Structure formats: structure tokens, C-alpha cells
């Protein structure tokens, strides 16, 4: 791995043509009420974490600009979504499931036409490697298709009537209202879609705010949203959270908060809602996922999985491994393999083939990570790998830090970046107690061969975290598995089927089992007089 100071700043003319920013995107419009409305107010510059050499001068690449909406503009977008929902009586919430599916399919076809443009913007806006950016786009599309399939299956199950204790009933799902959807910068497309698509397809209307980094990559999709859904169903807001988000929440008109970020921000948003008991929250929050390496673990496997688990996309993932517990008897051997593996990683620009370490989108992040490493050093830890912890501009080179112990910031803070704290342990009770006392409870990874020890660990952790990965890194996929967390890590369970349920509510239409009522219900169904009362079977 090159030292940070050896990494060249690319010359503009040396960037492959298909990845270049030909012209900045000045997005002086936003989507509201089925129109791309012009914004004549203040704008915010969108700068890339990638620095370029332009005629001998090193500078951040300007990608474009986006609107800094006013509170009034944001509130208008919300009022449009409220009007489109119309207390559940609008065209979208009353539309049949089949018709809503057709709209989402139309959007997906339009989205696929923008793949290359969105991938390029993802590379420049958040520094994600070309391979990972393509993978995120494709995964987002697969999630949409899986959601459609899951809804069809859910609707098939709901299409039958049941008769219990002399009561005829049909149980189906209905939307909740207006959703405020806010995704994260690390998976701006995929993670946003994991809440946006299920909430939309279940009949809710929504206001979407793109993440702080990854704003412009939604620009190519605005026309697709406009052309695929009825006016007012999808609306966008841009700008400072204090200006555009807090007023939306304070209005009390938001029925569902779909937010992926920190628990601190989520709590602040929830507190501003005047009727929190009427607010449903779907939250993906912080995590400090541990790996526990047992004495008999396959160290080659464990090291490889821990490197991928802690450094994929620079460790900027909620599911990343953020602290490693290794038995003291194998610590030296494990660290040697980790250090060698980190040294083999390619660092460079996100469009380069095989690159792993790329520029970081948060400008303050290198300084923050350096502070974590320095704090650990002052308390007796060392950076094990050569060049680890050095930085240049938006690059931070992965640091393997050992031995980490209680009292160090790295022991408890979620670093959300390429710093790997390693804690030696003697008794299995030490890492278990760490997980028990942690404020977070998303996932854990355990590495070993002894079935008795693995079983003991599973039983110790199963009531502390929501997924235990045996001899593999933490991860969200496959999307059919539940994705959730305990404590401060999440609220609500997501998967392609769980998400449909969390953005809707079960509704029962019932009648006494009499000849007259049977005839009435049969007539409604046969004559297709209701979108809700129906036995249609969607193929």
C-alpha cells in the first residue's frame, strides 16, 4: 500500500473519458406536485472528495450545485404530499395493488436507462469505487423487483376471505399516510430505496430528502419519479436540516419517519413531532459490530473476512466490523495476517480497477479518525501496519490499532471509517460482557471451529444482537433476511417482506355470516366494485 504522501493527485486529462465530469450539474429545480419546479433562491455547491490537478493546481472537483430550499418551499412539498394522500382517499392510496405495481415497474425501466450516469455521480460524490457503485445500483434495482414479488405474494395471501365464529372477514393491508424518507450517504441509492420503494408501493405518499453527500445522483431520477407516479405522490426537498426538516416534523403532518443515520439525530427529529404516539418510525441507526476470534479459528479465513468486513468502502457501513476481539494466544499471528492483508489493498481513485481505499466524502473525517488513533496511542496502543493512519486531503489510510482497551475512545465510539481496533482477551466472558453492556445491538461475527464454543457464544449473544454471523463478516444481505437491531441500533425490522408490513397497517372488513351478507359481498367482488374487497390473484 502506498504511503499517503506518495499517492498522486490525478490530472484531469488523465481521467478515463467515461468517468469524467464533462460539465457541472446546476440543479436549480426540485420535484413537487408532479412538476420540476424552478428554484431561484440560494444554492449549495457540491464538491467531490476527489482532488484533481487542473493546469498544475490541486483542487476539489466541482460536481455541481443543488437548491437550498426555504422553510416555505419545504412546507409546500409536505402539503402537496398531504393533499395527494387526502386522508387515504387520494388516487394513489385507493389505487389497486396491481396498478401501483405497474407504476413502480415503469419507474424501474426508466431508472435502468440512467445507470451509467448515476454510477458516475456516485463515484464522484461519495468516492465509492466503480465496482461498488455498480453493485449498489444493481442491488437497488434487485430490491425493487424483490419488493414487487413480495407484495404479489402478500396480496395473494390476503385475497381470500376467512370465516371464523360466524364472521366473514377479509384482512388486507392499507397505507399509513405521509412518509418523510431520509437515506444515508454511504449507500445513498440502495438504502434510500429500502424505505422509499416499500412505503410508496403500499400506497403512502412521501417527501424525500437526499443525503448530505449523494445529492446530485438523484437528479437523473427526478423525471422518472415525475412520469411514473401521480402528481404529488413523490416530492423532494433539499437544504439544511434545521431549515427544511424540523419544520416538517413540527407540523405534525408526517405520519412515518423513515430515517437512516445516528440515534442522536433520530431522537431529535422524533422529539419535534407534536404527536409522537401517532408517528411510526423506521430507523436504521448506529452500530459497533464486534468480531470474536476464538483460539481455534482459521486465521486466514478470519483475517480475510475481517479485512473485508472492516474496510469495504473504507469501513463506512453500519454493518462494518468496528472492533475485533482476538484471543491473546493467537493475537500476534492474527495481527501479522491482518497487517499483510491490509498492505496488499490498492489505494487510489474510485474509477481505478481493483481499488479498495478511496477518498472519503466527509471533509472532517480524516481529522476525526486521526484523533481516535492518537488517543489510543497516548494510552499505550500502536498502529501495527506500515503507513496506517496517515492521511492526505480526503484520503485516510487504514490503521490497525493494538492493543485497544477500555477507556480509549476506539473501544466505545463508532469510528465509521478505516480504523480497526483490536482487543486481546483471555476469557470469553470479556467480549461477551462488552456486547451485553454496549449501547448497540445490530450484529456480531464469531470465528472458530469448536462447535461447543460456538454454540455457547451464539446462546450468549442471541439476545444481545439481531444477527450472528458464523465464520463470516457482518452484512445485510440477502434482502429476504430480516435487517434490524436492538438498543440504539434500529427501530423496526426491514427485509423485502417486513418493509411492506412496517409501512402499512392491517385492516379488516367483516360481516356476520348471513345469506344476505354473503350475497352482498359476492356481488361486490364479482362486479369489482371495490379495490380493497377483492379476490383478484396477481401473477
What would a concise description of this structure say?
The chain is of the alpha/beta class and 539 residues long.
Give the topology:
Layout: E1 25-26, E2 29-32, E3 35-38, E4 43-54, E5 57-67, H1 71-85, H2 97-112, H3 115-126, H4 130-158, E6 162-164, E7 167-175, E8 178-182, H5 190-201, E9 205-209, H6 222-228, E10 234-236, H7 241-244, H8 246-250, E11 256-260, H9 263-272, E12 280-284, E13 289-293, H10 299-311, E14 321-327, H11 331-343, H12 365-378, E15 382-383, E16 391-392, E17 395-396, E18 399-402, H13 409-412, E19 419-425, H14 429-437, E20 440-441, E21 443-447, H15 451-461, E22 467-470, E23 486-487, E24 490-491, H16 496-502, E25 504-512, H17 515-526
Parallel strand pairs: 1-5, 8-9, 8-11, 9-10, 11-12, 13-14, 13-21, 14-19, 18-19, 21-22
Antiparallel strand pairs: 2-3, 4-5, 6-7, 7-25, 12-24, 15-18, 16-17, 20-23
Question: Would you kindly provide a written description of the structure presented here, covering whatever features stand out?
Answer:
The protein has 539 residues and is α/β, with parallel strands linked by helices. The protein folds into two domains: 69-284, Aldehyde Dehydrogenase, Chain A, domain 1 (3-Layer(aba) Sandwich); 289-484, Aldehyde Dehydrogenase, Chain A, domain 2 (3-Layer(aba) Sandwich), CATH 3.40.309.10. It has 17 helices and 25 strands. Helix 4 (130-158) runs parallel beside helix 5 (190-201), helix 5 (190-201) packs across helix 16 and helix 10 (299-311) crosses helix 11. The radius of gyration is 25 Å and the shape is globular. The termini are far apart.
